[in-house]
Amino acid sequence: MPNTKGVPSDIEIAQKTVLKPIVEVASSIGIGEDELEYYGPYKAKVTRGLWERIKSRPDGKLILVTAITPTPAGEGKTTTTVGLGQGLSAIGKKAMIALREPSLGPSFGVKGGAAGGGYSQVLPMEDINLHFTGDIHAVTTAHNLVSAMIDNHLQQGNELGIDPRRVTWRRVMDLNERALRNVVLGLGGKPHGVPRESGFDITAASELMAILCLSSDLMDLKERVGRVIVGYTYDNKVIRAGDLGVAGAVAVLLKDAIKPNLVQTLEGVPAFVHGGPFGNIAHGCNSIQATRHGLKLADYFVTEAGFGAELGAEKFFDIKCRMAGLKPDAVVLVATVRALKMHGGVPKSELSREDVNALKSGLPNLEKHIENVKAFGLPVVVALNRFPADTVAELDAVRERCDALGASFSLSEAWAKGGAGAVDLAEKVVEACSGSNDFHYLYDAETSPREKIETISRRLYGAGDVQYTDSALRDLAGIHELGLDHLLVCMAKTQASLSDDPAKIGRPDGFTLTVREVRISSGAGFLVPLTGSIMTMPGLPKKPATVNIDIDAEGRITGLF
Predict the structure, then answer these.
(1) Do 236 and 185 share a structural domain?
(2) What is the average pLDDT across 426-448?
C-alpha cells in the first residue's frame, strides 16, 4: 500500500475510527433488526428469512474489481474495491461491497491481512483478519471430519474396499505450515489406525471452501458435499463423501458459515465479507450467497476476484457467474505505476525513481489484461492506484495508453482520501454500467477438458502450446471414464506471471504451458489442472508477519496489516 512519513498505519487508522452499530449499517440498506444474527455490536450474519423477503427484487449493477499481474510492489485491489464502494456512496448511489474472508496463513505469513488499507478499509479490521465469525474454522472442522470418517472406515473393517494408497482427501488447517505438507498417518500399532501417507493443505484450498462459496443454499451445499470424491477402491471405483454418510454432518457444521457476514467500511458503507477460496487452487471469489444478497439490496454492488484478470476474473466469469446466473455490468482493472515498472524490469528497491521508459516496457501487461476483460464482452475502467512517488510523466503515460486502447481511465486516491479519492472512479464506473454489454463465457461447458484448458491458456495467458505430462493424460482419461468431462475448469497457475513460470514478467507470448496433474473437485463442480509448482500448503517466510503482531494489557492489537 502507499505510505508516506507521518501517515498512520492501517491498524492505527482502523482503531481511531468510530464504528456505527451494525444494526444501523443494516438499516441503511433495508435489513431489519430481526434479520440479523449478531456477533457483537459491529458484526452480524444475515438470516435465511432476509433472502426469502428480497429474492424477487430486481438486481442492481454488478461491478467486478480485478487487477494486472500482481507484483511485490502491490496493486491495491481490495483498497480500490472498498474505495469504489465509498466513492459510489459519496456521489449519492446506494452501494455495497463484498470481499473474501482473509486466511490466517497469509495474515501471519508474508502477505498480511486482506481488509483494504489507508482510508479504504473494512472494519472491524482486527476481527476480520483474525477469527472473525468462525467461518474458516467451521470449514476446517468440517473438512477434517470427512478425513476422520475415512480413516475410521479403514480401521473398522473397510467395508467399501477403500485403497489406503489412493485416498485423495487430505487434512487442512488455517495456517502456513510446510512441515505438514507430507505426513504419515496411523502409526503406533493396530489400535491407532491404518498407516498411510497423506498431508495437509491450507483451509482456503479445501474443496469444502469452494463448495461453501458456490452453493445456492444449505441443501445445495449438502448435495454437493455428497458428490465429493475422497478416494478410490482397490478395483478403481470412486468413493464419495456420500458413501461415508458424512454429508449431513458436514452441512450441520456449516449451517451458520453459509450465511453472509455483514460489516462496514471505514465510511459506513455496508460490506459483506464471506468465504475465502484460494485464488490459485479454487475460484478466488466471495460467496454466491453474499453476491446474490448484495445485488438485491444495493443499486451498485462491487466485488473482487483473486489475483490478476487471467486468474480471478476468468474464474469469476466462467465459474461463479455461470453457476449463479449472474451478468456483470462493468469491470475495474487495478494497476499501479510501481507494478508496471516492475513488469518493465525495475527492481523493487528502485521503484521510487521516475522511469518512464521502464513503465512503457511494462505496459503490455496492462494491455493484455484489458484484452482479457474485453474477451468476455465487458466494459473496463482502469483504476490507477496512486502512490506518492508517482510522477506526472508516469501517470500521463498510463493514461495515454488507456486512451489508445479504448479503456476508460481513472486516477484513484482511495488509500489516502477514502471515498473522496474515488469519486472520479465511481462516476466512470456508473457511466460504464449505463450501457448494454455483450457478456459471454470464454468456453462452452460441454467441450472437452482439454479444449477448455487450451482455450484459457491460449486466449488469456498467451500460450503458444499446451503440453500434458503422462500423469495429467492419465488423469484426463480417468475423468472421461467417470463421465466428468462436463465439469468446468479452474486453472491452478502462479499469480506472478501470465505464464506458468513466475520469472516471466510483463507480457510473455508464445510460451509452452505444462499441465502436470488434473484434480477433480466434483462437489464444487470443476476440474483443477495444476501447472508450474503450485503449493496447496504455503510456508512461512524467514521473518513472518507473526513476529510483529502483539497485544497490550488493554487488548489493543499492533502489527496487524
Answers:
(1) yes
(2) 97
Contact present, 288 and 216 (Cβ < 8 Å): yes
Distances in Å between the Cα of 548 and the Cα atoms of 8, 107, 258, 559, 561 are 16, 11, 33, 5, 10
pLDDT in tens, 65-89: 999 999 988 789 999 999 999 999 9
Q: Give the residue-averaged pLDDT of 256-281.
A: 95
Cell numbers 478466488 correspond to what residue?
A: 284
Alpha-carbon distance of 402 to 509, in angstroms, equals 21
Please say whether the beta carbons of 385 and 336 come within 8 A: yes
Beta bridge partners, 183, equal 198
Which of left, alpha, beta for 490 (phi over 0: left; psi -120 to 50: alpha)?
A: beta
Helix (H, G, I), strand (E, B) or coil at 538: coil
Q: Is the pTM of this model over 0.85?
A: yes
Check which CATH number belongs to the domain holding 186 and give it.
3.30.1510.10
51 found inside a domain? no
Count: domains in the chain? 3
Q: How many CB atoms lie within 10 A of CB 382?
A: 27
Distance CA 181, CA 199 (A): 5
The cell for 509 is: 507470448
pLDDT of 555 > 50? The answer is yes
Asked if residue 331 and residue 289 are part of one domain, the reply reads yes
Residue pair 83/422 in contact (Cβ under 8 Å)? The answer is yes
Q: What SS3 class is residue 80?
A: helix
Alpha helices in 44-132 (DSSP H): 48-54, 77-90, 104-107, 125-129
CB 210 within 8 Å of CB 282 = yes
Q: Indicate if 347 and 412 belong to the same structural domain.
A: yes
Relative to beta strand 196-198, strand 229-233 is: unpaired
Q: Give the C-alpha separation, 335 to 411, whole Å.
A: 10
